[in-house]
Design brief:
This protein is about 60% helix and about 0% strand.
């Protein structure tokens, strides 16, 4: 591993082939790692950023090609062909079913019952995602058959989501300045290629990544604004504020956290408040659905329900309790760790806690974790193990749906096989989480800290002195038997500093 060297006043960027054995071995396919003097003597057009942008566009295009069987008709014939070919997407279905084809205004106009058989009266998505969908519908011509218009709607959305994918690669690449090639983990991600056009999650993921990049530049207010916008597009980014709170509390940077929190609340209100005031019933649809939704595909709770026969009618409370418990454990880890964790590590763990505890896991939810996993543990081996589990789950969910929609054919994956795939997906998330926890407890294993860095993406947290730390103080030797006989107490009073395991506060 190469330590930072100064070249014309700037740190030499880290090449993945110099610190990752798997990357170095894979580079033999294209002639081996770059030499020490590669690119010396002039400006190279093929910069890391340009290479990664082209790679992610190519991978995104391959993902679109993978949807061709559905584009050619499987989306519109009904039944299980779209599952057999693993090319399902919500986008063309919701064009008609949520009234975009009929110019229904999201949240303000109710969905006619003849359009939606789902029981939704209004669009069940957060406001900023609804605006994204509406803009795509404006760009979709109204001429031709409904099938043709739905196909065009999917293409338009795919083009907009491709822009989000490119932005995501650029943002992750620039979050850690010395590691421009880390965006390649995103660009080459099979999970990104397969799931990017299933739904609109990539829009919120790109906004959240923009917030983290701005935080890494010590711009907490702007970072909060982007995190607030991301939360207005998908609910999960609000957990990034929890990660920032824990780290800012330990580092004594609460003023910066206050700026980020204020920016997030302000941005969220700017987007949501007009809809709350003018179309409260439509705005409530997403939150009512999230609160009342039962056990669904991909979750831990589905395995419990199917294996025990218990309907788990109180699953929302169970899921919330598990999430709170996991976040409490992450908070304890943050304050008790021998060295303050990096932002990428804590952000990954809190979102992974939501993934593990949630009532549902749709295959596109892998995108939530993708940039955070790269910031937390940029190692090809660990990321590929996790991605392999996610690709397996991607195939399993469609095969399970083919099984349950195929009538008497029973082709696809049975409930037992699907439960195994869900378990493998959960184990993949837990494996990567365990590696991140190991890096926090044993910082010498942390890839980003092996050159002496603190938190390259931490912004105001980078290099900050701790002001709130919890440690366990070992017990001091107690008085001997003679001292006890003379009236001394063998046991210290409850809560005294010498009691094993008693916490103290280090300022």
């Amino acid at each position: 591993m190469r330590t930072p060297q100064e070249a014309d006043g700037q740190d030499v960027p880290v090449r993945p082939t110099e610190e990752d054995a798997l990357a170095a071995a894979a580079s033999e396919l294209i002639g081996g790692p770059a030499g020490r003097h590669a690119g010396a003597g002039g400006h190279r057009w093929w910069t890391a950023l340009r290479v990664m942008v082209l790679v992610v566009i190519g991978m995104f295009a391959l993902g679109m090609v993978q949807k061709v069987p559905c584009y050619d008709g499987a989306w519109f014939t009904g039944g299980d062909p779209q599952y057999i070919h693993a090319c399902y997407s919500d986008i063309p279905h919701l064009y008609h079913d949520r009234g975009f084809a009929d110019d229904v205004v999201p949240y303000f106009d109710s969905i006619p019952g003849s359009l939606s058989g789902s029981g939704f009266h209004y669009l069940e998505y957060p406001v900023l995602t609804g605006l994204f969908m509406e803009v795509a519908s404006w760009l979709t011509p109204h001429g031709g058959s409904m099938q043709h218009r739905s196909q065009v709607f999917w293409v338009v959305n795919s083009g907009m989501l491709m822009i989000c994918a490119v932005a995501l690669v650029v943002l992750v690449s620039r979050t850690s300045r010395r590691r421009p090639w880390d965006g390649l983990f995103i660009a080459l991600s099979p999970a990104l290629a397969l799931s990017a056009t299933i739904n609109w999650d990539l829009f919120a993921v790109a906004l959240a990544a923009a917030g983290l990049m701005l935080w890494s530049r010590s711009r907490p207010l702007a970072a909060g604004v982007l995190i607030g916008l991301a939360t207005a597009a998908k609910l999960y980014p609000v957990l990034l504020l929890l990660a920032l709170f824990l780290l800012c509390l330990r580092a004594g940077r609460m003023r910066a956290y206050g700026a980020a929190l204020g920016g997030a609340i302000g941005a969220w209100l700017v987007v949501n408040l007009p809809v709350i005031l003018l179309a409260r019933s439509g705005w409530d649809q997403f939150y009512d659905y999230s609160r009342t939704r039962g056990v669904d595909y991909g979750s831990l709770w589905l395995i419990v329900m199917q294996r025990t026969g218990n309907p788990l009618s109180g699953v929302s409370a169970y899921a919330a309790a598990l999430l709170i418990l996991l976040c409490a454990g992450i908070a304890a880890l943050t304050f008790y760790a021998p060295r303050r964790p990096r932002l990428g590590q804590v952000a990954f763990l809190v979102v992974a806690a939501l993934i593990v505890s949630n009532k549902v896991y749709s295959p596109q939810y892998v995108l939530w974790l993708l940039p955070l996993a790269v910031l937390a543990r940029p190692r090809w081996r660990d990321l590929l193990i996790w991605q392999g589990a996610e690709v397996l789950y991607f195939l399993a969910i469609w095969m399970q749906l083919a099984y349950v929609t195929g009538g008497t054919k029973h082709h696809g994956l049975s409930a037992d096989g699907y439960q195994l795939a869900v378990a493998i997906h959960l184990l993949g998330v837990l494996y990567l989480s365990a590696v991140v926890v190991r890096d926090i407890l044993l910082p010498q294993y942390d890839v980003l800290r092996q050159d002496g860095s603190d938190d390259p993406a931490g912004g105001v947290l980078d290099g900050a002195e701790d002001s709130f730390v919890l440690t366990f103080v070992p017990a001091e030797p107690g008085p001997g038997p003679q001292d006890a006989a003379d009236g001394g107490s063998v046991l210290p009073p409850a809560g005294a500093p010498g009691v094993p395991g008693a916490p103290r506060y280090d300022d």
